[in-house]
Each structure stands twice: as structure tokens, then as C-alpha cells.
Amino acid sequence: MNRRTFLSFAAGAGAGLMITPIPWKLTDDISIWTQNWKWNPKVPKRNVFFAEMASKLDPAGTGVRVALVDGVPVGLASSQDHPLSGGGVSALAAAEVGLLMSPARVRQPLVRTEAGLAPISWSDAEALLAEKLGRAEGDVAMISGDDTGTANEVFAALMHRLSGSFYMMPGEAQSAHKALEKLGGEGHLAYDIEGADYVLLLGADALESSGTAVRNARAFSQSHPSGQPATAKYVYAGPVLNNTAVVCDQWIQARPGAAASVALGLAHALMERGATARANGLDAFRRDVAANYSPARIERETGVRADTLRKLAAELAAAKRPLVIAGSEFGQGAGARALMAALGLNAMLGRINVAGGVKIVPEAPAVVQGAGSAASRYSADLVPFLKKLAEGKASAGVLMVYDANPAYALPQAELMAQAVRRAGFTVSFSSFMDETAELADLVLPSSMALERYDDVYTPYGAGQAVYSLNRPLARPAFDTRATADVLLSVARRLDIDLGYLAFKDVLRAKAEALGADWKALGRGAVWTSAATTELVPDLSAAAAPAPRAQGEGLLALAPVAKHNLGSAKVALPPLCAATVRGSDLMVQMNAKTARQSGVAEGQAVRLSGPGGEMTARVHITEKVMTGVVAAPLGFGHTAWDEYSRGLGDNAYKVLAAADDPETGLSVWSDTRVNIATA
């Protein structure tokens, strides 16, 4: 064999070997051998468990499905069966798992010392709180930001026994309760938006941040199937082309805080067409109120053209199942008048307690003695109290705050923070180190919804009575406790018997009072009821004029609330950090307003109003009506974590509230500001 023959043979053997399975099998065996030595780490095989719950971060109580591995929450998805979600999930609800390990969470009880906040045991913290409450001698107040939970019964009953005051954070639920009370009704306002064929939204950002927004968005989607004719018309009236207006069939430009006036103008136009209503005080309403809100007046005061108003009235009268929903553009500060006017308008259309209309849902039976009704718990107006406290005209020996951040998310925010400082002893029951917790003398961290027993009863705007029970799905990640259990324990230290040893027992009693199955609720089932409460509204209650706009500025300020930026009690949700670019707050105005104000795209500006000042940069867009500057809420945090802190400025600092003694609720949806280059 010569050299050439040998090389040819070797090449042929190599090529033949490559088309056999021998080298590939050897390679596979080698990979298996090298990856299965006993010292190599193994991927554990674990069971994934799914559980249903209702979000407490989302004020709409959206139902979610939580994935857990060995008792540890690892993910979250929408709940297909929950009546308030139906396959959708909001950015706030999606944060229930992501915020469990947030760097902003309070990990243990803290007490203020000369060196700042320092750790304290739960036993010592409860003893300290009991001592402070015992010495306060009735000079006690508590603020709650939970609109849907039975925990409020525990808090209100304790305040009753201590001769203290109980306040709910202002919002849509409080406005709805007050509106019903003024018109002679009681219960919860619910909107059967799925059954309506014409939906008029006056200010209310119902597909983004108002009411049961996820459910409302699902109803809108079902009425607007892709490639097919719409089965319902949606019209939005407001100052900004927001996430609701941009998908509606029509956007009508209306100045901030105009919902009540537009509703009264529509009532005027309907009465001109001969409309009547099953209501008390109808003649007085027609003579003293509606007659004064002519289309010409509405055009002057709100920017809604007279011919547009008449066309809206004609469309409402022609629709088979019209529905009018009114409110604040950012879910706060509308007072009661907008909802009162909208209820009167729905009454004139015959849309109360009918399919596709407004439903009056009964209150849940109270199970804690001394708690009072839900309406009574919403009766006190928080903003005037905090103003007086900040100015030294009122006192609070002990101020307790649960699930709320009044030092950040109320008008004249700096004054509200001063009120928290002026209290004799401030206690924050917060899961997170927010602005209010940073000012507190005692921080008793609340377990999050995944870690505690809690419940949700009929959020504002739900189409029917809804009750969900949350049970602990995971062990507390830190040394935290459920606030209701803490205060039940503190009550016992004060020899106050509230009738229950644990909050779980309170919830069991609530389920029994509703006629719900406790075991089914524990498995994630949702109790619902189609029951309604009779309402023959007294329209004469709407006879008083609405409060004037706050401030003498040249521009109307339109705050904008978006779930991806957080809420009044939650900062930037973790999954939404990528939606925020840069560190400046961008306020929006159209080109005409910018020219009139002497500002340009990207320019640094200062907005000043009766509440204070804020800084921002200008973005010019035609998504804002002339004479209006829009400012997103959720920026300007001085607490929380590195992802939320220091981003832009807080628009709440500029807002100011006007008193409305006729309804008993302050209004801050219409604030005037001036703008200047910074």
C-alpha cells in the first residue's frame, strides 16, 4: 500500500464513520455522563398550585389567579371566572406578587427614636399603642384607604368605643354613597354596563382608572367585536384624549370638573323634549335647576357646544338602554354633585334598577357591633379635618392610617403631610415605606393580600353585589401582621370587647350574614346577588349651585390617573417600570395653549396654583383641549423605592379643595393654575 492509497482509504473511512450513529451516540453518552455526576446540581421537580383571589392593590377588586410552587407565589394571571375580571388584569392587580419582595416593604415593626425609626417587637408595639390610645381620651382619629373590606367595621367599631373619629380616604365610593344619601337612597352604585346599548361617560375614565375598569374594558370589547358592527355606542366627555376616550366612538371636549354641569344641561335638553321621571321634587328640579342650565350656558362654562349637547340628548332619548356614568377624570375630588346629576339624568331616562342601567345594590350586613353602616363610615370629610389639623385648629392625640398615603395623595399634599406631623402620635399600618409611614411615630407593617385573610364586597361601579374571600396563600415574607388582627388584640389590651378574637372569625360571620358558602369562598368561588334596593330619587336636592373653581389661574389643570403609574396608595408597579422614561414629569397641552402660554416643546416650566407649585417639562399634543394642561399622577414620590423615588414632581401639591357645605364633601377636580418658564 503506497501513501496515496493509504490516504484515500483513511478519508473514505472517516466519511463513512460520520454517517453512522456511532459518533453521535458517543457524544450523547458523554453529555449524559458529564451532566449526571452526583455533585452536579439538579432542577427540582415541584408541583405548581393555582389559587384564586381578589386583588386588594386594585381598588376595583379584580380577580386574579396566583401560581405557587411549594407555597411560594411565583406568578399571576387573570381569572377567567371572576365577574370583575373575566380574563383581564390591571397593572395594579398584577403587582400583587411582584411587590411581595419589594425593597420598599416594611420588614418589621418600627418606632421613632431620637436616631430615627428603630425596630420594636410586636408585643411592645401593641402595648405602646394601647397606652397611647388609653391616654388620648377620645382625641383619636383613624383613616382607611380600603373601600371594599370588612376590616373597616373593626376600625370603625374601635373608634366608636374610643369616642374617636373614622375617615375614609376620598374617592369614587365616598362620592357615590354621599350622592345616594342626598337623593334619599342607600347602598352601592352599580352600573350594568354590559347590558347598555349607549354609554355616556362624563369625566369618568371608566376603561382605565374609574370603577371596575377591567370589567368595563371587557364589556367595551364585547360590544365592539373586531370586523363586525358595534352593538353599543360609547361617548366620552372630558378634557383629555385619555385611554378611555381614545377607543370610544366619540370624544367630546369638556373642561375639567364639568360632569355635573353637562349632566344638568342634558336634563334641560331632555325636559325641553318632554321627558319626565319617576322622582320626587321633579317640579322644583325643573324650575330651579334644569331651567338654568341652557345649552348656551353649558357651552360657555364647559366648552361643550350647544348643538353637540342637543345631539347627545337626542341620542340618549332614542337609545333603548342608555346609561350615564359621571365622575372625576382621575377618580378623586368630584364631590357628590356630578353623581347626583347623573343619577337624576338616569332617572329621567328610566334607567334605575333596570337591565343596562344604574343598579342600587344593598349594603352588606354589618357584623361588628358599633361599626355603623357603610354610608355612615363614608360620611365624614377627611380633607377639611386634615387642613384644620395642619393649621392647629383641630387635634388628634393619636392618628392611625391604614392602607392609605394622605401625606402624598391628597390636594395640597405638603399641607396634608404637615397634618400628619402635627398629630400627637401617628401610627402607619402600611405594607410599604411610603410618605406617610416615613413621618409616623410607629409603623406596624400590614401583611399583603397574599399573606392574610381579607375580603372584597362590591367595589364602586360593579354591576351587581359581589363578595370574594381572600385566605392566606403564602407565609408572610417578613415580620408583618394583618392590621385588623392587630387592632383586635390592642382592643383586648384596653378591655374593649369587639365580639371577635380574630379577623378570620369576622369574615366567617360576614359570609354567614350574606348567605355565602364559607368553604366555597375559601376555594376561590365568588358570591353574587342580583338584589337591588328601591330608589325614588329626590331631585330637589340638586338645587344648590356647585362650588366654584379653585384658583385664578389662566389654565385648567387636568390630572390624569393611569394604573401603570400606580395609584393613591401604590407607587410604580414593578412590571411597569419600563413604561416610564426619563426622570422629568411631562405635562401636556395643545399647540394653541402653548403659544398663548409662551412655552415650547420640552421646555422646563413651573405650574403654580392655590395648593402650591410643581415643576415639569412641556409636551405639545392635540390630545388636550385648549385652555387645559394635563398632568399625570403617580410621580414626585419622596419615599418608596429607587424605581419610584425622585421621578418628576407631585401634581397633588398644586390641587386645592373647595368646600361644599350643601353636600358635605370637598371638591378638587377643577383647579386653575398659572404656568411660567422655570
Quick recap of the structure?
The protein has 678 residues and is an alpha/beta fold. α4 crosses α17 (483-493). Helix content is 29%, strand content 19%.
Give a description of the structure.
With 678 residues, the protein is of the alpha/beta class. It has 4 domains: 48-98, Phosphorylase Kinase, domain 1 (2-Layer Sandwich), CATH 3.30.200; 110-171 and 363-529, Rossmann fold, CATH 3.40.50.740; 174-361, Dimethylsulfoxide Reductase, domain 2, CATH 3.40.228.10; 555-677, Barwin-like endoglucanases (Beta Barrel). It is 29% helix and 19% strand. The protein is built from 20 helices and 25 strands. The strands form 6 sheets. Strands 5-4-16-15-14-6-7 form a 7-stranded mixed β-sheet. Strand 1 and strand 2 (63-69) form a beta hairpin. The longest helix is centred in the first third of the chain and has 16 residues, at 3-18. The mean pLDDT is 93.
Write the layout of secondary structure elements.
Elements (H helix, E strand, L loop, with lengths): L2 H16 L3 H14 L12 E7 L8 E7 L2 E7 L16 H4 L11 E4 L2 E4 L2 H15 L3 E5 L6 H11 L3 E4 L3 H11 L5 E4 L6 E5 L10 H11 L9 E6 L11 E4 L5 H14 L9 H7 L6 H8 L3 H13 L3 E5 L10 H12 L9 E4 L12 H4 L4 H9 L7 E5 L10 H10 L3 E4 L5 H5 L2 E2 L10 E4 L7 E6 L12 H11 L9 H12 L3 H5 L4 E3 L25 E6 L25 E4 L1 H7 L6 E6 L2 E9 L7 E5 L38 E7 L1
Parallel strand pairs: 6-7, 6-14, 9-10, 9-12, 10-11, 14-15, 15-16, 20-24, 21-23
Antiparallel strand pairs: 1-2, 2-3, 4-5, 4-16, 8-13, 17-18, 18-19, 20-25, 22-23, 22-25
Helix pairs in contact: 4-17, 5-17, 6-12, 8-10, 8-11, 8-12, 10-11, 14-15
